[in-house]
Design a protein that fits this description.
Length: about 375
């Protein structure tokens, strides 16, 4: 295949890339045009790239491929290797159960914002796969994010010039009020979980603010109990192939967290019990160095949610998610006057603004406390 670059316009920065893509049934030469903005050297490089894609069979014409075909290709060639395994599973479900059936018949190059908007409207009315009820605004928003990312990649691959999903207004779900436990309720929960295999995960969530996946991916080599510190280096996720370990999402997610004395003591006792189980199972013990594991050392199965809810019910506590223990940790620290920067570092947020935004509900109480303290400081000193 051959190609060449032609100037377009008089600004010296707009170029037409012309590719010879063979001859049609009538014997006439077929060409494909693309507009490129940049220097002549950059246009030549882009022309060479497009020729390579055509010659290796990785390039397609957007007017010939359907949205359904493209989305499957995007899953295979991009999402499967550029997203976490659990994220890829969610993407695949959204594509195969919702986006492809609704939008898949359209040609990729002909997909319009109106097609997408009509799908969102339909999904909010009767979008369940069994056609028995609507999808929530939050679910449809998730579909929008997946579609926008997929079509954004089509733009990068030069299959589309613009992303039609960018021109669509997705539904805005109502913000849910954050659910947390009070300090007293957290104590009741720990007492109720004392004899449960979830005691240590619950304790670490309440006392460190770690995510569930980070707790279940914790290894003994990450701990320094003498210094009462712990390094968060990985997380565990559950896929169709079983549990897998992955790196934290961001650089800040890889962090050092100080441990309270009660967590250090619990970890020491837990290690003694775990060593006893290691001796009991002998060569059958699966030694992955995991802190929280099954009796035989294997990673904890994905039944934490079910068992956690059973403990809450037994303790007579309000229904919260395991992840809400992370929110509980942050809220308790903020209400005790711990600086948001410290809380942000313990949680592994990429910046403090995320912490302030997520826990803004705590700020009014902190404002009132600040006003009371300034009264005490200045009382009797004002002239």
């Amino acid at each position: 295949m051959k190609g060449h670059v032609r100037p377009r316009g008089k600004d010296g920065k707009t170029w037409g890339i012309v590719l010879d893509i063979g001859t049609g049934p009538d014997g006439k030469r077929k060409q494909s045009w693309a507009t490129f903005h940049g220097s002549k050297k950059e246009a030549d490089n882009e022309c060479a790239r497009l020729i390579t894609l055509q010659n290796t069979g990785t390039s397609v014409e957007p007017n010939k491929i359907t949205v359904g075909e493209y989305l499957e290709r995007w899953l295979r060639d991009y999402a499967a290797t550029n997203t976490a395994a659990q994220t890829f599973q969610r993407y695949r479900i959204v594509v195969q159960k919702h986006l492809a059936p609704a939008l898949g018949k359209h040609k990729l190059g002909k997909l319009s914002p109106l097609h997408i908007q009509n799908y969102y409207t339909h999904a909010l009315q009767e979008g369940r796969s069994n056609r028995q009820g609507p999808l929530s605004a939050r679910t449809v928003l998730h579909h929008h994010r997946v579609l926008r990312e997929a079509l954004g990649q089509a733009v990068k691959w030069r299959l589309l010039t613009i992303n039609p999903a960018e021109a669509v207004e997705p539904p805005r779900p109502r913000s849910k009020e954050m659910a947390t436990l009070t300090g007293e309720q957290a104590g009741i929960l720990l007492n109720a979980a004392t004899d449960s295999s979830l005691y240590l995960p619950i304790l670490l969530a309440v006392t460190t603010g770690m995510r569930k996946g980070e707790i279940l991916g914790l290894q003994w080599k990450d701990l320094d109990l003498d210094r009462a510190t712990m390094q968060v280096r990985r997380s565990v996720e559950y896929t169709d192939e079983g549990p897998r370990f992955k790196d934290p999402k961001t650089a800040r997610g890889r962090r050092v967290v100080s441990l309270p004395a009660m967590a250090v003591e619990a970890l020491r006792h837990h290690r003694i019990r775990q060593n006893e189980m290691r001796l009991k199972f002998g060569p059958d013990y699966c030694d992955l160095d995991l802190v929280c594991s099954l009796h035989d050392g294997r990673p904890v199965c994905n039944n934490v949610v079910r068992d956690f809810q059973a403990i809450l019910k037994k303790a007579g506590l309000p229904k919260v998610r395991f992840h809400d223990l992370r929110h509980t940790h942050a809220t308790l620290l903020l209400t005790q006057g711990i600086h948001p920067k410290v809380v942000s570092e313990r949680l592994g947020h990429s910046n403090i603004s995320i912490t302030l935004d997520v826990y803004s509900h705590v700020l009014p109480d902190m404002q009132r406390e600040a006003a009371s303290k300034i009264d005490v400081i200045l009382q009797g000193r004002a002239v």
